[in-house]
């Protein structure tokens, strides 16, 4: 499958990685929208939040267990925002589930 994030997970496309476990990987976004902009992806190909099922939801559990450690490693002591864009209306551009961790400044209240 031609999926950029599967390739990043395999290591065939390089990334500025900051965390990894058996289930997920976190790396810096190539085009940061905030002073700190990290992406967390499952190592399994899941297309989007809309493809989460009872069979693959352990990856979500593991990602959310890792997020506090990733945020701490990135120095996000003042808080942060976790976002996943889903489908066309959600403006999802990479069709492999990923969570944006945004922070490093006070973020705008408006989310859409
Ligand atoms: P989406 O719009 O799908 O929610 O977010 C995709 C994100 O992936 C974007 O913020 C984009 O900058 C980032 N991105 C796309 N390709 C690459 C890549 O090859 N490496 C990294 N590190 N980030 C990428
Ligand atoms: Zn993938």
Helix-strand topology string: HEEEHEE
Number of domains: 1
CATH topology: HIT family, subunit A
Q: Architecture, according to CATH?
A: 2-Layer Sandwich
How much helical structure, as a percent, in the residues?
10-25%
Question: Which structural class matches the secondary elements?
Answer: alpha+beta
Helix segment tally: 2
Bound molecules: guanosine-5'-monophosphate, zinc ion
Largest sheet: 5 strands, antiparallel
Distance between the amino and carboxyl termini = 32 Å
Radius of gyration: 13 Å
Care to count the β-strands?
Answer: 5
Mean pLDDT: 97
Strand order of the largest sheet: 1-2-3-5-4
The CATH homologous superfamily: HIT-like
Proportion of β residues? 15-25%
Inertia-based shape: globular
CATH class: Alpha Beta
